[in-house]
Amino acid sequence: MDFVRFENVSLAYQPGSPFAIEDVSLSIRENEFISLVGPSGCGKSTVMKLVTGLKPPSKGYVYVDGREVGGPQKCVGMAFQASNLLPWRTTLQNVMLPMEIVEPYRSTLRARRAEYEEQARALLKRVGLAGFENKFPWELSGGMQQRASICRALIHKPRLLMLDEPFGALDAFTREELWCMVRDLWQEEPFTVVLVTHDLREAVFLADTVYVMSKRPGRILVKREIDLPRPRDLEVTYTEPFAAYVHELREHIGHIRES
Ligand SMILES: Nc1ncnc2c1ncn2[C@@H]1O[C@H](COP(=O)(O)OP(=O)(O)OP(=O)(O)O)[C@@H](O)[C@H]1O
């Protein structure tokens, strides 16, 4: 069964204003990794807002886990281009934040804090941040801050991870390191991922399926399954099939920008 489903969804931010996205239909399987790409302003972040329940559709239906989305979803974790770590909290305290908000963790936090903190430490270790638990965000590099931010998005074991250009502000080497980190986290304990990115190599390296969106109003123009074997190592990015996928997607986006 589809885990996320859009049926002919349109959204206008104000009544009577033009649609930001129009007639978008898509289905995402449980534990599928999809990526949304498209020109600036095509509505990628709008799709994220609809999935997470931050905005209701003007037309059509959005379903998550078989239920129509009617408000903020608690089975979702989110990370953005800016890490948005709270500067007065340590890395560990930042990662623990969802445990203070999301049920059933919130109501059991007092009794089980030690256990939950252990889970946060284990997650930080998996992403290479062992030893940095008590550092403040300003004591971490940009890449480390993004690692911590993704831990915060995953600590409450969401079934859906929404990533809105999470690697956009990082240098090329750090970005590739973080691709591998997300790949490993997803492969070890799968969850459904929606990744918004401008980087076509990133989309092809990570995703099972890439959706290309048109200029405003955003529509889905292309759905491309990425049939590269897993597990994928960075070496795959130097192969002919990988380059062919990136080239094809770049051509689609080129046509959209010209039109
Ligand atoms: N809160 C808002 N109120 C009114 N219009 C909005 C709002 N948020 C986005 N829009 C408009 O909706 C359209 C889609 O915006 P959205 O942020 O979803 O695009 P995007 O593809 O994520 O852009 P980018 O790649 O530049 O981040 C844009 O034309 C934008 O101006």
Outline the fold blueprint.
Layout (H helix, E strand, L loop, with lengths): L1 E10 L9 E9 L3 E5 L6 H9 L6 E6 L2 E2 L7 E5 L10 H5 L9 H22 L15 H13 L5 E5 L7 H17 L3 E5 L3 H7 L2 E5 L6 E6 L14 H19 L1
Parallel strand pairs: 3-8, 3-9, 6-7, 7-8
Antiparallel strand pairs: 1-2, 1-4, 4-5, 9-10
Helix pairs in contact: 4-5, 6-7
The chain binds adenosine-5'-triphosphate.
Keywords: ATP-binding, Cell membrane, Membrane, Nucleotide-binding, Transport
InterPro entries: AAA+_ATPase (IPR003593), ABC_transporter-like_ATP-bd (IPR003439), ABC_transporter-like_CS (IPR017871), ABC_transporter_ATP-bind (IPR050166), P-loop_NTPase (IPR027417)
Pfam families: ABC_tran
Class of secondary structure makeup: alpha/beta
Architecture of the domain at 1-75 and 194-259, CATH level 2?
3-Layer(aba) Sandwich
Describe the biggest sheet?
6 strands, mixed
Query: Could you tell me the radius of gyration in angstroms?
Result: 19 Å
What is the H/E string? EEEHEEEHHHEHEHEEH
Notes on the structure:
It holds the Pfam family ABC_tran. InterPro entries: AAA+_ATPase (IPR003593), ABC_transporter-like_ATP-bd (IPR003439), ABC_transporter-like_CS (IPR017871), ABC_transporter_ATP-bind (IPR050166), P-loop_NTPase (IPR027417). Belongs to the ABC transporter superfamily. The protein has helices spanning 44-52, 91-95, 105-126, 142-154, 172-188, 200-206, 240-258; strands at 2-11, 21-29, 33-37, 59-64, 67-68, 76-80, 160-164, 192-196, 209-213, 220-225. It is an alpha/beta fold and 259 residues long. The protein has a domain at 1-75 and 194-259: Rossmann fold (3-Layer(aba) Sandwich). Helix 6 (200-206) packs across helix 7 (240-258). The chain is globular. The two termini are 36 Å apart. The model has no long low-confidence stretch (mean pLDDT 94). The protein binds adenosine-5'-triphosphate (ATP). The site of adenosine-5'-triphosphate has 11 residues, from helix 1. Adenosine-5'-triphosphate (ATP) binds at residues 13, 20, 38, 40-46, 216.
